Amino acid sequence: MAKTNYEQDSTNAINIISNRTTIKGDVISDGDLRIDGIVEGSLNIKGKLVIGNSGKIVGNINCQNADLSGRVEGNIIVKDLLSLQNNSTINGDITIGKLSIEPGATFTGKCSMST
Length: 115
What we know:
With 115 residues, this protein is mainly beta.
């Protein structure tokens, strides 16, 4: 049976929280996640996390890779690469495999790099 457009393999799934959405509670995803809205709770993402310019997280993050342009108030654990874009603001401790910070990014907290 052929897959329709809405039937995707969960390993390729991309979830989007739009800029007019607020979620209060923890978010768990086996796929990738893009946040342009607000999440008040912890995130546990097995894939890549993208936080857009209007995105805001109040809670802890645990993911494989992350590309942050918005605001995070909480601790972050990224197993591989954390990229902080020029307009990102991070208030919390980070534990990462690799780190990329563009000029203009704001980071307040401790940084630990694990191999």
